Amino acid sequence: MGMFGRCGGALGVLVLSVASLVAGCDFTGSRTADRIDDALRPLAGVSSVSHTVSRNGGFGPTSVTFDVYVRGEASADQLSALTHAFTEQIHDSRAFRSLNATLNVRRWPEGHHLDSTMYVELQPAAATPEPPWQDWLKLSRGEYGYEITGWASPSTYDRPAGTSLNVTLFDGKDRRPHNIGATEFATAVRRLGTDFPGSTSDWVITNSFIYSNDPPSIRSGHGLPTAAQLDLWEALDTIAPVHGAFNLGPLPGNRDQPDRNRIRLNKPAGRNVDRIAEEQLQLIRKSGTATAYTIDDAQITVRPGRCSAGVREPQPRTAPDVNLQSALRAQFETCPR
Fold first, then answer.
1. What's the confidence (pLDDT) of residue 291?
2. Mean pLDDT of all residues belonging to the chain
3. pLDDT value at position 321?
């Protein structure tokens, strides 16, 4: 065999020996990925398995993704077993255990749904929480929305470990954002709150897949919004469309950020922003909730009943917007003298 081994190519014997111990001669990760495919494919509820190994042109893989399609009748217990089997396979493999790995579980139910997907992310030395399989399946099988997406993610430098569920209510073809009012949207969210009372996942509910950046939309951390929060959002959205975010954790890079609830108004064209802001801020102050109110394009932020002094955040860039923020804060905020 001489100086070079079968796996080593131009590598010396010493380098080959070290590399072989590290990766078992599977320098590209393809054989390990094939073995993981073979381990997942026979599991109950699994329909098909495929993978993608990413490389940056250098030595060895940089990340790996497995796509698993599951049968319509797959149970939460079967999906949990799939998650644990995948995690064990990644952690036990020399090729992938030090890389980021993702399991994409896809389900195409009958009916009007586009599809349902759960993304399970693994990172070295970081635990991933159990995906909310029961809730994901219930959403997927029920008449809740056009598309259902879930995540289970480990902690990173700017995000704690957690799970989330996204529900897109309409497909955007027959239903436009301006055709759905605050009451209809709030009714859909109230139904979710009734049907998923014990959820601890973060939730994002949007009107339309195509127009997902347009109001109305609601997100909530650690469960769905409370009845009082949803009532407030509905009243605000009736005045002018807003994005609502409730029960949030601290913002990355600003652990002292006081806002657990945020209402964002997209500056409406051709309408009296001053009047809209005053009406909505009066409702927020009356509700007694600790809520930050922002006018997005203008970078105006007001905290009714509280004080914005000392909070690090973007500030208005034009003189009219600076003046409007000052006037609204003077009217609605309470700061120590």
1. 94
2. 85
3. 95
pTM here? 0.85
Contact between residue 114 and residue 209 where contact means Cβ atoms under 8 Å apart:
yes
Residue numbers of the chain with a pLDDT score lower than 70: 1-26, 58-59, 109-114, 171-179, 209-215, 250-258, 269-270
Chain centroid to CA 81:
23
What is the C-alpha to C-alpha distance for residues 167 and 63, in angstroms, rounded to an integer? 28
Buried b (16+ CB within 10 A) or exposed e, 288-297: ebebbbbbee
Structure tokens at 130: 């159990």
Domain extent listing, the chain: 247-337
Total length of the chain? 337
